[in-house]
Records
---
Amino acid sequence: NIKGMRGQVSVFEPHFADSNREQLNLEEYLKRAIEEARFELWYQPVVNAVSGRIEQFEALMRLRDEQGELISPDRFIPLLEESGWIMLLEPWLLRSAISAASLLARRVPGGSCVAINICGQQLLDNGFIERLLRILDESACEPSWISLEVTERQFLEHPERVIQVLQALREMGIRVAVDDFGTGYSSLAYVKRLPVEHLKIDREFIRELPHSEPDKAIVNSVGRMSEGLGMHVIAEGVETQEQMEWLKAHKVFLYQGYLFARPAPLESWLSDEALGLVL
Ligand code: C2E
Ligand code: CA
Ligand code: CA
Ligand code: CA
């Protein structure tokens, strides 16, 4: 009796059924949000302890639910990437981030760049570099005013091709950063071949500083390694003064985190007061 079976399944696996339905609802919701162009791009600064100024901004995607509450990107970004829909958002994403970069670089004292998160599908797409160059040109944006953040996972899946694309980007003057560094098990032999400027240490390793001996050891060795490789380390998720002091004492000078500022819409970064944010 099928009807009875169904009843049983929903009794024994209520959680599973719920989250499946939620997933389907989110997919439908995302599809509509793409059609209606309802995504937003917010910006969070990275500050430099040496200059005491904002050095770059990371562009972070935002989407609201029916009640107007923000949906966590950790919920919708994986879906956008798995479905390939991220490609539909790319023109909007690149245009918005690059026009913001063009504006901010001219207004931030000492200049700045905007870091854009790029997934593997985008990076490995044949037309990617061409599209990027066209938008930079249309927005009167210097290549060095943007940085592309790529995760370690992308290197593991297509190492040679990724190195080739990153090399081409660097030759054009576009900056490159490895995101979520330390979470993706990338081999050191591999890291040394990467033409990147910044390593972003994941918040996971920053959260318990300076109270976790393993995290201290990890952050310390990433710092020393990056020095030898000519890369700069950005610490993500810096929330306390104590974390910042420890990082500074261990020669990590670039910080992104709630201690300095939360992500916010571009408009809120356009005042002299906001851009004068200093350590
Ligand atoms: P991510 O690239 O590692 O971005 C950093 C995340 O850390 C952001 O989360 C940011 O809001 C959060 N964060 C920064 N400082 C602090 C802090 O002090 N405390 C805490 N608790 N969190 C902090 P967010 O905005 O929720 O984004 C989550 C992830 O979604 C990003 O992680 C990135 O992987 C992805 N994402 C966001 N926007 C885009 C996008 O435009 N394209 C792609 N492909 N992925 C994106
Ligand atoms: Ca990022
Ligand atoms: Ca990150
Ligand atoms: Ca992260």
Note: Residues 1-14 have pLDDT under 50 and may be disordered.
---
Amino acid sequence: TVKGTHKSDFAIYDNFLHTQVSKEKMIENRMNEALKNNEFIVYLQPKIDLSSRKIVGAEALVRWRFPSGQILSPNDFIPIFEKNGFVTDLDFYVYEKTLSTLQKWLLQGNPEIIISINVSGIHLNEANFLDRFLGLLEKYNIPPRLIELEITESIFFKELDRLVLIINSFRQKGFLISIDDFGSGYSSLNMLKTLPIDILKLDREFFMWNEMGVQDKIVISGIISLAKGLGLKVVSEGVETEEQVEFLLESSCDMAQGYLFYKPMPVEEFEKLLDIKSI
Ligand code: C2E
Ligand code: MG
Ligand code: MG
Ligand code: MG
């Protein structure tokens, strides 16, 4: 035992661990059934062009709706599924739902819209990921240029050479590639100049302060100008205030995603918002 720690502290910690463990067990026990029951649902969060304030795309974000109606956020289950491998089944379910929705829209003659999906780092080590994904695009007749693959930066910190090859193979097929959550973890500026990507998504952590300090602003506008100089488009995540929008416009940021504009919403709500004809 650690000196100076009361026994009761351990009791509280044990209890905390126990709660975490049983929650994780519950999630693992129910995941297969939940997939069959259609408990996983896809929400869409609009992406806004900052100068015109028009919706230029959307990100597909999964939710878990329990039979009780309770909704679980992906941060509560994606990390568990990345550990036990279930993330592949879940993601392909999400991709299939998303692509079939997009197909419906295209068949009804709606204007084209770019949809982003999240690609777990796990998939980059799966030899058949790209082929399987291309199979889905063929099934739903979706041109790759309408799909943006968001890859989280935390997996970028090693094996940069191999990653360049993988990303290039995606890009050759015509997908847009973005680096997600940039600045939150292991981001390096070297990565920015080496990776063959199209879009940089600035992590929401940069915008978690109600009032941004001078230092924050210097860092954010520095990253934006660096990215723009390298020919990338920049999206800011988690934009919640007009003050942030004003600053981002001054800093030449292209797009934003955040509660100030829209929260992630069910597909039907998104269709209403954009006046999308659907069958
Ligand atoms: P992400 O890809 O970085 O997605 C952005 C997250 O920020 C979303 O959280 C979104 O709801 C949230 N957000 C957007 N604007 C604001 C804002 O103004 N304020 C605040 N407080 N939050 C905002 P969400 O939906 O909980 O997703 C969390 C993460 O889970 C995602 O982060 C992504 O990494 C992962 N994820 C979500 N869906 C999937 C999926 O289908 N597959 C995989 N592999 N991962 C997913
Ligand atoms: Mg994302
Ligand atoms: Mg992100
Ligand atoms: Mg994130």
Note: Residues 45, 61-62, 73-75, 78, 87, 91, 94, 118, 120, 150, 152, 180-181, 204, 237-240, 257-259, 264 surround C2E (ligand 1) (CB under 6 Å).
